[in-house]
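G.,

No rush on this.
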Amino acid sequence: MVMSNSMTAGRHARAGRSALGTLLGTYTVSAVAESMTLVAIPWFVLETTGSVTRTGLLVAVAAISSALVGLLVGPLIDRVGHRRASVVTYALGGLAVGAVPLADSRGLLSFPVLLLLVVLGSVLDTPGTVALRGRVRQMARASRVELEPVNGVMQTAANSAGLFGPALGAGVIAIGSATWVLVIDALACLLMAVVVGTAGPAARPERAPPGGPVGPQSADEEVRPAGAAGLRRYSGELRDGLAVIGRTRLLRTLVKVATGYSVLDGAFVGVLLIVFAYERIGDPASLGVLVSAFGAGALCGSVLYGALGGRLPRRPVYLIAGLVVAAGVGGLALAGGGGAERLAVSAVLLGLVGCAAAPVDLMTTVAVQRAAPEGAYGRVAGTLATCAGIGAPVGIAVGTLIVGTAGLVAGMVALASGYLLVTLLAWRSSSLHDLDLDLDPVPALHGSATIQPRRPDPTPVGNRTNDRHSP
């Protein structure tokens, strides 16, 4: 009987890993298609409206709305389940993007309609990502696959898409038109919706603990909500999710650190890097080289940590990565030599910064997947995404103020000091030691929503597969 159960569990795990591989492959295609629209949508707006102002307005509104929506839709993701929420967001996003060229071909694409469709597609990005990460967590758990390599594949796909997607989109526009890119993205989103909806079995509902559930009985799509809740209940669920972060020390620390890094990243990428390329190198093409170097470094970092992260102590890697980022940004302020020499040195430094930053993002994602209680993952991850999204424009404003008043070198030094300060504050936090523990979240809201040591696995040791870091 034990042997039969072990063989059945092994077959289920292999089938789950196959489904997970299909999902990750489709996600790669979707990520590349979405990155292509970074070039195609502004180009399409310029072609159809001829207005730079309207183009900037559309991009700004889409970015702000995408940042804010993650916090608000977290309770909805937890209610309907990760798989169902992911299917709906990808399907609606694909339909919204596909409606743009369709409406244009029929002469119905006024600017308000275009703004509505683009914003609709953008606001679905954050909830779609949150729901997909939750679904990946469920599938990895069912397949007994470590979270580091799974999330490493996802981040590698996203970094590869960010590095090559815009150039690919520009090539498609040159051959055909921006409409072609929008159609490709729409089809990729719809394909992703189909694969998410069919890949892997539904996760089994878990029994709520005596302390009371955080949200519904579980985060599974098979657990149906008890009907449409009113605004008061919805806001209560939102507060419950925030309470989980407030009462779980690791989550609380990660949200603070991620928000601090987001502010600094916004100042660096949105202001100081552009001014650096303009003032210190003076060649417009240098900005593309520097951005590409950072992207290549991030790609290498995600590949390396995805492959080796399960064997490395997480807290030291997390802190060392922050120190490397601070040193790299500070090194840019000291980079000397002529234009070509300074460009080469700066590209190497930015490659190191990107390589160091990638594991921080990966460890944050994996830690949230481990520590967020069942039934509250959407709210926890959505809050983190919102804090990070809001931090970027704040950083742009602060970076602009510092450079405008104190100059580029002072801005770089202040930015490096900021990265160092956030890293040192993380080092002083005892909760960061929880990164190195194999923990199971306790889905209790009343009392202390802490995380506890993993319960013993009844599966015979010889039949376990990569289960050391499963959530």
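When you get to it, here's the other one too:
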Amino acid sequence: MAKSEHLTGRIWTKEFIILFLYHFILMFTMYLSLVTIGNYAIENFGASASTAGLVASIFIVGRAVSGFQVNRIGARKIMVIGSILFFATYLLYFVDGGLIFLIAVRFLNGFTTGVISTALNTLATISVPENRRGEGISYFSLSFVIGSAVGPFLGFLMLDYISFGAMQFYAMLAVLLVTLMLPMVKTNNIEKGHVPPKERFRMIDGDALPMGFSVLFMGLAYSAVLSFLNMYAVEVDLVTAAGFFFLVYSAVVMLTRPFTGKILDQKGANIVLYPAFIVTAVGFYILGNSSTGLVLLAAGALIGLGFGNFQSIAQTVSVNLAAKENVGLATSTYFIMLEVGLGFGPFVLGYLVPSLGYGGLYQGLVLSILLAMIIFYFVYGRHESSERNMKTSHK
């Protein structure tokens, strides 16, 4: 690994800040378009509402390809290549080629976004001291939380004043400004002069995959919140409160993640994840019984406290389970499994809505969360104390 400021023991180094800003702007841009492009397609091309479903799982391909290449040619080079391709595909948004062309552009831009995000997460992971990795990932993951909260908020706000094309232009300009700082990032996951070994293409890290199934079932549950909350809110007449749901969720995550990351580094994952599973399950049960706006927002706070912290801790566990040279592939594996749950969850769960209703679906997803907890117990939880003892004895 190349020498860098991570050797000083600090987390918020110059490189970490640049990586954080880039990932924040990237996620901001992603969610900005995610909540606005559906209306754009309907109004300009007469698309059906189901077209928005194509966007949900589009980033999986980028993750699948980039994880392996990060290990081969280095995360820094992948970040640069992905950034160039990002701008090349983003410019296609300004070409009026019809609905099929727009879908193709979304696919290509989603691919490049997944590539960059995997590289940035890998670089951020290795740029922090190994004994503060949990805290570092918790801080870095806030770039996603803030971007996914600010993007939709500003997206809806700006569409009242500017066109979709103008909004895309300003978003691209923001990405361009932050990429000008990339030459200052020197950290990499491979040594200079590294010759990529000849090996078979791998999309998944086998060591991180078992934990990935726990991530998948948690993502499956949360996908119902992303996809069905608005419809549920209309059904129970809580539309106004639902508008603040993700702001409450994000606020709780931002307030708690730095602390849970420190606890992970000092005490291990079990002390954080088991309560996170339980709190998330309680949040989903309350969400399914929401009768007032206050109850709905309380559910949002509980899900933020539970699932919001599960994400960063589970990513750290996935990376720690893998070999040091497979940090990129393990990071990619974590995101692939998460996005499979988030992307395909609505398609599967949609078949249950007619029989269970939205409230019943949220309550039923408590089972998915408990299954995720059981998987975690068998693949990591029950072994954690012995693994920590081994690491301590080797210090």
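The chain has two domains: 5-184, 209-388. Residues 5-184 form a domain with the Growth Hormone; Chain: A; fold (CATH 1.20.1250.20).

Enjoy the weekend,
O.
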